[in-house]
Amino acid sequence: MDEKKSRMEAAFFLAEEPLEKDEISDVLNLGSMGFVEELIEDYQEDLEESHRGLELIRTENGYELKVKKDHLEHVSHLAPHQDLNEGQLRTLSLIAYNAPLEQADLVEIRGNRAYQHVKELVNRGFVDKEKDGRTAVLDVTDFFLEYFDIDSVDEFKRMADSDDEEASEEDEESHPRELL
Length: 180
Description:
Blueprint: H1 2-14, H2 21-28, H3 33-47, E1 54-59, E2 62-67, H4 69-75, H5 86-98, E3 101-102, H6 103-110, H7 113-124, E4 127-132, E5 135-140, H8 142-147, H9 153-174
Antiparallel strand pairs: 1-2, 3-5, 4-5
């Protein structure tokens, strides 16, 4: 059981998005959802001990490993912006780069998980959401600019564009084009 629990912990640690029970079952090579639930509950109880710095939380999309709130202020500087998962960051970057952006367009690009990402980003104060007919218009807030220490959305776009140019140059250097 301890080996399964430690593998499950490793999966939670590496996962970019919350894990559902069936994904955990696949990682552990288990067919019994009852045993998976028992492992999750046991692991959550382990983490509830006061000397532990992490907690396992259940979200709408699955289970996610996070730093306990009472430790966050002391360690967050070690990994800035890690309180947002990769899916949330990708969704936020699309909104920022294309702002204002209709939620329907975002969902077309990112898929249905974007609805949950938007909800979380609005709740955290990164995104404004204004109803517009059958969709909503999304835009970043001043808190977004402060959080990422940038002066404007235009600065964000310039940074993103320069990153794309650097990536293209690196790709060309490693794969030079043949001259005709």
